[in-house]
Design brief:
This protein is α+β, with helices and mostly antiparallel strands. It has twelve helices and ten strands. The longest helix has 24 residues.
């Protein structure tokens, strides 16, 4: 992103004068993040992915997320909200959509840094978010249908082609099982962050701030807590710490989180991994952030395989809580 764009931002939004060159921040897989320093303050700028903004539902989704962000603010949750200019959070300059935030010095945790205290803190916050507003409504989600042969025909990257071909039967089996589990999810919807893994929580000493709130929506609290318990216990690294998983789930329950008897359907209904896989396969086909797409396809297929392998042990742990 050219420095001239950031010069326009600070001028139009009256943020002061740039005192140094914008710094691209690491960690953004979907959107791009930059830090800018002016003579008034230090800010974080999130440049929204133009391909996502072309989607028919993009603006309504962002608008709903912004409304829920305000609710979290009102309830005193430790979040970093987008700043408001001209009575709106989302800004647009030169056909580029973006958000502006006060810069926070905290850092996200790497998996090896996460301990039981972190799991207990995050799960207790998650339980509070889920208790803000409870809707007795059916969990509605369209089945995810993937034509694996289409991607095998389109993918030119040999490593990705070989990986997909090797795993296509297992992927198809698990996808069918996930689609079948949709109707078995309990009819409860709450406010959910929907992406509150460790990369989206910044820590400064013992305090934390939740970021990346543009995915906020009403969703299943059962799916969210289960996915986050897995994430914080290390399954994405392919080496889960079952004690961290237990600590996360136990703290969630103790702080008023939702309980059910059958968590097997929750485990099976993890369609998010398949949606993320398809998103990155499409990125690869359209030459959009190819290096990130390749990395994420490899990682996601590995995670799907491992997710299937650890199922029985996870069910045993939840029964013991």
């Amino acid at each position: 992103m050219e420095i001239s764009f950031f010069e326009k931002i600070v001028k139009i939004l009256n943020l002061g004068q740039l005192t140094s060159s914008p710094q691209k921040l690491t960690g953004g897989l979907t959107h791009q993040m930059y830090a800018i320093t002016t003579d008034k303050n230090k800010y974080a700028i999130k440049i929204l992915n133009p391909e996502i903004m072309k989607r028919p539902t993009a603006m309504s989704n962002f608008k709903r997320a912004q409304q829920l962000e305000l609710i979290l603010q009102e309830h005193g949750l430790p979040i970093i909200p987008a700043l408001i200019f001209n009575q709106k959070k989302m800004q647009k300059i030169d056909d580029i959509y973006f958000y502006v935030y006060d810069y926070y010095q905290g850092k996200s945790l790497k998996q090896e840094q996460i301990n039981k205290v972190h799991c207990q803190k995050i799960s207790s916050l998650l339980a509070k978010i889920h208790q803000i507003e409870i809707k007795k409504q059916r969990y509605l989600k369209e089945p995810v249908n993937i034509d694996w042969n289409y991607y095998l025909r389109k993918i030119e990257h040999q490593e990705i082609y070989d990986l997909l071909e090797k795993n296509v039967l297992l992927l198809d089996e698990l996808l069918k099982k996930a689609n079948q589990a949709i109707d078995k999810i309990p009819p409860v919807l709450t406010i959910c962050h929907r992406d509150m893994d460790s990369k989206n929580v910044l820590w400064l000493d013992d305090e934390c701030r939740i970021i990346d709130l543009e995915c906020l929506d009403y969703d299943s609290p059962f799916l969210e807590v289960y996915e986050l318990a897995l994430s914080y216990s290390g399954y994405q690294e392919g080496k889960i710490d079952y004690e961290l998983f237990k600590a996360f789930m136990l703290s969630y329950f103790e702080n008023g989180g939702f309980k059910i008897l059958n968590w097997q359907d929750i485990h099976d209904c993890n369609l998010g991994m398949f949606e993320w896989l398809v998103f990155n396969l499409n990125r690869l086909i359209t030459n959009d952030d190819v290096d990130i797409a390749i990395q994420q396809v490899i990682l996601t297929i590995k995670q799907i395989r491992y997710y299937n392998e650890i199922k029985d042990k996870l069910m045993e742990i939840i029964k013991e809580i």
